[in-house]
Design a protein that fits this description.
This protein is an alpha/beta fold. The chain has 13 helices and 13 strands.
Length: 417
Amino acid sequence: MEVRPDLHLHYVQACQILGQPRNPFIACVLQEADKSDKIRCTEGITLKMAGNNHLVPVQRVTDDDFGVLASVLDQAAFVTGLDLGCNLLTDAGAKTMATFLQENSSLRYLNLMFNDIGTSGAELIAGALRTNESLVHVKMTGNKIGNQGGMFFASMLQINSTLEKLDLGDCDLGQKCLIAIAIALTQNKSLKAINLNRPLLFSQQEETTVHIAQMLRVNSSLVELHLSKHGMKNFGVERLCEALYENSSLRYLDLSCNKITRDGAKCLGELLKRNQTLEILDLSANRLEDAGAIYLSEALSFLNSSLQALSVVSCSISSKGLIALSSAVKSNLTLSYIYVWGNKFDKASCMAFWDLIQTGHLNLSRTDVSPYKVDGQIYLAELSHGLQKHYYWAPRHNVVPEGAANTSLEIVDVSEH
């Protein structure tokens, strides 16, 4: 008869041996894990110890807490995922984590988002990833590792050949490390997705975008790229479009929260007429206006058969552009997700999207607007859907069902197992 592992018992014993008080949150998670049938499965289990878990009382994980936990997990090969997001880990905890990663050969998913790890902690973790051959997905989101910390990850990408998904968004990356990452990705053949959102850039010359575009000309493995909040203007978009004419692998491009206007949208429209690889395009919070929306609509109406999802949330689009987009959805059989909230709706544009939904061309689960009627007139209400709209908290609690935020649209399926 198979003996079930007892994580909770081992944790209690480790706390006694190391003289460390028990963290009730860790104890609760381990007790629940002991009951899981997935322990017997080959896919393993993910321990979800996120500090913003609203379902149970949380005592956030500290460096000392993780030291005890690591000693328990050393003997638990069935634990393949570890979510420690939104906790209190610092560079001292990163040192313990680095040692753990060098010795552990079963962990595939590691989430450290929004801890207090800095540059020296980033150096240790990136150093461990040089030799680790099991991790495929690492989230460092929101740790202020800075430009130098990003350089350590860029150096790691030149050596590591197993990592498939790396999240360095909101990490205060700088120009030098973005360029170094772009150069590393000209040679790296394993990475499929990278998040480089919100770096700290002070130049107006868009050097980083130029280097990323040059990388896309030769990289044939990357399928998901997030470049939100790069201060990107039409010049940078044009360089990316030129590169994507030669790229046949990228399927998800996030250019949200930049400075793209109608001219940049025109370049993207021309790209969509010829590119048959892109499946998801996020242009939220740019200033496309009606002209930009029409450029995109013309390409999508007749000449593109690959794009599945388009987000133009808060892009200063009014009735003319919104009606053009609704016509594109109606005539394009592939485009099935569209997000348009935050634009300038009037009676005609509300009617256009009401008609799309009523005729079955657009499913309510695949858009962020829902029509309703008052005194015979159609209005639109916002739905809580969108590309990565709830990225920073879902699925920490069950208020929004899994999938309601359309997070299933992520291309690279290497999240937890």
